[in-house]
Amino acid sequence: MLHKPTNHRFGCKISGWLFWFPISWLATEMISGRLTFCLFPGEVLVIGSNLPIIAAPGDDVILPCHLEPTFDVQGLTVEWSKPNLKPDPSDEYMASYFRRTELFMDDMKHGNISLKILNVSEEDNGRYRCFIPKLRSRVKAAVVELVVGEKICFGDVWG
């Protein structure tokens, strides 16, 4: 939880402790709302989506992930993975993504590290992690959930 007292300082609650920092430091809250942390000046965050990405089989989808503030990631390694799977180069499942995935190379200079997956199937369901191992930040990764299914109800969205 973010607190702002009258003496122009921000407080960040971390693991039950309340810390106060000058207002010139940027304080923010994780999208999940489970942990609050303080971001120092110049620090960059990897941001995913707090809502699942919903698709039907055969759709092309974009798993959103970007850096805030805008940061040029050209020259850095961007890794997309499924956290529940252990990397195995001979894995046929991972080979199924070959020629079905794209990064937005021209937008990487603006911090866009979103992943496009073509022709999704129900096997693509799950959590995906975008990660920049050499990013000089405490927040180097974000998770995006993809839900693929024939009969996905949205409820009364437009009501």
Automatic annotation (TrEMBL):
Gene Ontology terms: biological process: regulation of cytokine production; regulation of leukocyte cell-cell adhesion; regulation of T cell activation; T cell receptor signaling pathway
Subcellular localization, as worded in the UniProt entry: Membrane
Main location: membrane
Domain of life: Eukaryota
SUPFAM superfamilies: Immunoglobulin
Record keywords: Disulfide bond, Glycoprotein, Immunoglobulin domain, Membrane, Signal
Residue span(s) of domain Ig-like: 41-130
GO molecular function: signaling receptor binding
Pfam families, sorted: V-set
GO cellular component terms, A-Z: external side of plasma membrane
Designated name of the protein: Ig-like domain-containing protein
Organism in which the protein naturally occurs: Maylandia zebra (zebra mbuna)
Taxonomic lineage from the root: Eukaryota, Metazoa, Chordata, Craniata, Vertebrata
